[in-house]
Amino acid sequence: MNDEHVARAALARIAEPGDTAMGAAVRVHGPQEVLRVLHGDGPLPPEFRRRDPGGYRVRLGGAAAAEDLAAVARLGGEFVIPGDRGWPTQLDDLGDARPLGLWTRGAARLRHAALRSVAVVGSRAGTDYGTYAAYELARELAEARWCVASGGAYGIDAAAHKGALAAGGLTIAVLACGIDVAYPRGHERLFARIAEVGTLVSELPPGSSPSRIRFVERNRVIAALTPGTLVIEAAVRSGALITAHRADALGRVVMGVPGPITSPQSAGVHQLLREEETYVVTCAAEVLEHLGRIGEDLAPRKAGPARPWDRLPPDLLRVLEATSPFHPLAPPTIARTAGIAPGTVTTYLEALRELGLVTPQEAPPGTPRPWLRTTTHNDNTPARNDRRVPDGPRSTAM
After folding, report:
1. Segment Disordered: which positions (predicted)?
2. Global pTM exceeds 0.90
3. pLDDT tens digits, residue range 290-310?
4. CATH number among 3.20.20.10, 3.30.230.10, 1.10.10.10, 3.30.70.100, domain 314-386
């Protein structure tokens, strides 16, 4: 730790997350000079003209930076600042809203984990559908060796962290409180597990409590830290949508998982999906199609099960439809139903026999050999005499 670390740690106690006035002053004058001026030594920088310096100075008598740095060291964590080898440089895209530094704790190196990461965010009041989708998508992403980042809250956030952990993957929890504060309290064991294999991160010093504005500003870090943000369930007024809009403004990929149109928890996602440059995804492969290597990480196209008659020419299909899945029919009967000449029908029936779609039946000498369909359609096509064809294949060979 050098003097800049100490100065930035001290300023992190003074300024709230996302304070662009503080960020601009630090960018222009450096953290040591800004801290010196706030202690009353010299005129205030012009970047503070629109801010009451009393709001900063009232906090000067709080915990010392050395105490915070010692506290994070006891936790086995560290305080990383811009310019450090462990600093995620993608956060620089936030400009003057960039964190003064990040307090981290965990086995995974934040910078490396964030390079291949996806933010999975959503409602705290997630439905069974939403939490299942978050868990499964996070698990699949972790199996593909992508890190899952979220905010550590109840609902979708927790499901995403747990899905990544279940797959033995990495996960990042970006907190709106100190990394030594378990909030919500019910996630104390979850945060301990994340620290064992992933990482906890916050721009707030140890011991800091969460607040509404800190949750809002925390979202900008999640958006900037990851190449893409995936929203699973979000009401029209939702912090997850704030994260998505921050990500979009930063040029990151924004994706959403659609839900029931009757669900208030999905209304915000559906509104988001109507906007430009927002993508619908339903599986991890589709997420990685937008974030992976161009032209290589393409998701397979989804299709229904292939059926043996899908590629039959129209006339051949008409002959197949004219046969019966229930009882043998003579070729003249099939010809009348299909509207195709009897000679052609005989040829087509032989072709269908070779494909295993019809089978000939024994008949008395001198009578046409009857034919029976061996596999039925499953597309609800009306059969002979307006009978409905049962769903699914059925063997009716005699």
Report:
1. 357-398
2. no
3. 997 654 555 566 656 667 777
4. 1.10.10.10
